[in-house]
Amino acid sequence: MNIDEILTLVQAVSDSSLTSFKLEQGDTVISLRKEKEEAKIVTVGAPAAPAVFAASAPAHVLPAPETVAASGVQVPAGVPAGQTSAPAEAKDAGTDIGSDKVITSPLVGTFYSSSSPDAEPYVKAGDTVKKGQILGIIEAMKLMNEIESEYDGVVEAVLVNNEDVVEYGQPLFRIK
After folding, report:
1. What Rg do the C-alpha atoms of the chain give, in angstroms?
2. Mean pLDDT of residues grouped by 10 in the chain (176 residues)?
3. How far apart are CA 37 and CA 31, in angstroms?
4. pTM given for the model
5. Residues 23, 37: contact at Cβ < 8 Å?
6. Which of 87, 130, 128 is nearest to 111 (CA)?
7. Which ranges of 16-123 would DSSP assign to H, the alpha helix?
8. In what order do the strands lie in the sheet with 101-104?
9. How many angstroms separate the CA atoms of 67 and 80, rounded?
10. Cα separation, 170 vs 173, whole angstroms
11. 171 in Cβ contact with 89 (< 8 Å)
């Protein structure tokens, strides 16, 4: 099944009153489910190379193109040169963190430094933390996952900003 056929299925489900649709073809399983005017596509290929697609009903499944700035940092297309954010620079600096106690993201999602937008952050640079203390939250698929400290120590640096999208394994906190 090619991408055009998948896009046709997404359009057909979004235009109809169907709330879910499942198609199995050989090793490929496509499951579409519509919630609040959204269609979600989950495609599972052969065990060696599974693929997952998620898109809203009118959007295309293709990822946004990225360009590489002169500094070597990947920047989404449409961002003017020289306007990369500090977290991207911190991510680039992540190759030489300068501490062996680094808390990294266990999953891809949106990082939140506090439990609500008007609440104080869980921790700031200079705060003393204990093993198991909550440092932040990562939202993934509408689930809130608490990020706990793996070490006792002092927060040397918070390497991401509130509401930043984080990648798996991306450094979040440096503890000394």
Report:
1. 20
2. 78 76 80 62 54 48 49 50 46 53 91 89 91 91 89 91 91 91
3. 16
4. 0.45
5. no
6. 87
7. 86-93
8. 101-104, 171-175, 153-158, 128-129
9. 11
10. 10
11. no
